[in-house]
Amino acid sequence: MITETANGSLLPRIIGVGAAESRGLRRGFIVNVAEVAKSVKHAINQAEKTAGLQIKKASLSVGGIGVNAFTQIGAAAISRADLEITDLDINKAVEESQNAITESSLLNRKIIHSIPISFKIDGKLVWGQPAGMKGAKLEAKTFFVTCLEQHLDNLTEAVELTGVKTENLTASPFPTSLVNLTRTQKIAGVALANIGAETTAIAIIENDLPVSLEVLPFGSADITNDIALGLKISLEEAENLKIGNAPLANFSRRKLDEIIEARLSDIFELINNHLKKANRGGLLPAGIVITGGGAGTINIEQSARTNLNLPARALTSLLGANSKIQVKENIWSIVYGLCLIGKDGVGADNFGYSFVQKDALNKIKNWFKQFMP
């Protein structure tokens, strides 16, 4: 449910949660639809029981190594005789950017988001929307997010096998950014790293628009496995040591720190390579914000600062959850963001980046008008 708080903000009121062990997945990719459906059904049953309501529809986030993103430029001649640019011209330029994508880039893939990020009129960059301006040619630079079509089909099938209808499909960094990033950060330039169990999703946002997105095939479970092997302990003990929830006992703190830092360095090296590829290495004023289950790893902020040469903050609690159920872990931020996306009119086809407040709903309706193809 979404309720209005005393200061006028619109925030979800969490009335039920459900969790289940993920089965049938590998690096975020579905390898067994039936097993995934069982896990989803178990989580749904828990949520329905605590909420006292039946779940009939759902918004889904799409992650895993099947997701990628790129930009493409398209151009269109202005249609009006007086050369005034209309929404029709804008839509045509965006459409041409999609038409310019090579066939190999979309082989076995489906576009899930198409987001215009900049425009040029007669070769000159336009700040803001070009509608109403004049020129002979309009160019659109569009940010496309794609996913393996088989993965999308399997994900939808797994959910609908539980009797729940899928309404929206959204790349996971977008709902996460709604909850964890401020508008100031997104304008200045920020990297958002969601470190899950088996994958890490990295998104760069600048001027309130996405610049790049990539999903890396490493996550916090790799750190846990390294600790278990290095200290010869169970995975359960290793997980608790990783997040500082267990005494060291007979283990060396120095050795534990070395094991964790070795794997974190590997992950942050891959993140840094992505930042450099996007020409943002060491150049994001708002730094990097780390979320997901891996954000609770000890010393992760210091490791990020050292390896990335950026300000770093790890979020381990879910901020702003106006809830009768205390949900403290940031691992719920994607679900929390999806609740905002699913709220009346704040869907995947007109989803916005401004933090969801009463006076921001109009902005929400503008930013992702081209969000879904």
- Global Rg: 22 Å
CATH class of the domain at 67-146: Alpha Beta
What is the molecular shape? Answer: globular
CATH architecture of the domain at 67-146: 2-Layer Sandwich
Annotated CATH topology of the domain at 67-146: Dna Ligase, domain 1
- Whole-number mean pLDDT: 85
Helix content: 25-40%
Most strands sheet: 5 strands, mixed
Distance between the amino and carboxyl termini = 28 Å
**Strand sequence of the main sheet, in spatial order?**
13-12-11-14-15
Q: Which H/E pattern describes the elements?
A: EEEEHEEHEEEHEHHEEEHHHEHEHH
User: Low-confidence stretches at least 5 residues in length (pLDDT < 50)?
Assistant: 1-8, 320-326, 344-373
Total DSSP E strands: 15
Separate helix tally: 11
- Please identify the structural class as seen in this structure: alpha+beta
Strand content: 15-25%
Pfam families: FtsA, SHS2_FTSA
Protein name: Cell division protein FtsA
InterPro entries: ATPase_NBD, Cell_div_FtsA, FtsA/MreB, SHS2_FtsA
Domain SHS2: 1-180
